[in-house]
Each structure stands twice: as structure tokens, then as C-alpha cells.
Design goal:
By secondary structure, this protein is an alpha/beta fold. It is built from four helices and four strands; from the N terminus they run βαβαβαβα. It starts with a strand and ends with a helix.
Length: 104
């Protein structure tokens, strides 16, 4: 991976621009770039976008919310039917955090 492009998961226009870019990986962001009031809309749009196969699956990553929030579980549920190639866990405290997400 040479280039990573973070794209807010609540902006259809930015998701479309991301696909058109030459970035090696698109990181659909459900965390920092999405306002708290837009989290559910971002989950819905990201889920729909993943289902549409708008980009090769190996180019897609979803950054979920930190596991010390309840939002991460909602993020994982939203992408479960069409999982991306990668999930980015922000603010991970160590391997135990990664293992927790893996088992959820």
C-alpha cells in the first residue's frame, strides 16, 4: 500500500470521488470525520456502498469507532453483511483490543 485515502462514511459525493482516485486503499471513516449526529447515517451509507461493490474489495478498509465506546459494535453490525478487506481500529491499546474486535 503506497497511498491511503480517508473518506467520511457519511458523504456519498466524497465516496464517489474516493473511488475515482488512484489511492491504493480507501478508508471509509466512521470515526473522527463523522459528527456524532451523523454516525447512524454514515453506517447506513457505508453499508449500502459496500454492498454496491463500487470498488474492488481488496481496496477497502473501514475505520470503526474505538472499542471503549458502544459505537464500535454498531459499526461492526452495519458492515457485517458486506465486510471490507480490512478494519482499522483507532486508539487501540494493544493486541487484546484487536482480539476483542476479532471475536465480536
Amino acid at each position: 500500500m503506497r497511498s491511503l485515502l480517508f473518506v467520511p462514511g457519511d458523504s456519498e459525493r466524497k465516496l464517489e470521488k474516493g473511488v475515482a482516485s488512484d489511492a491504493d486503499v480507501l478508508i471509509l471513516d466512521l470515526e473522527d470525520s463523522v459528527a456524532a449526529t451523523r454516525k447512524e447515517a454514515a453506517r447506513t451509507l457505508t453499508s449500502q456502498w459496500l454492498a454496491s461493490a463500487a470498488a474492488p474489495p481488496e481496496r477497502i478498509c473501514v475505520r470503526i469507532n474505538p472499542i471503549d465506546t458502544h459505537a464500535h459494535r454498531s459499526d461492526l453490525d452495519a458492515i457485517a453483511d458486506h465486510p471490507p478487506a480490512m478494519i482499522m481500529l483507532p486508539k487501540a491499546g494493544g493486541g487484546s483490543d484487536v482480539a476483542k474486535v476479532h471475536h465480536e
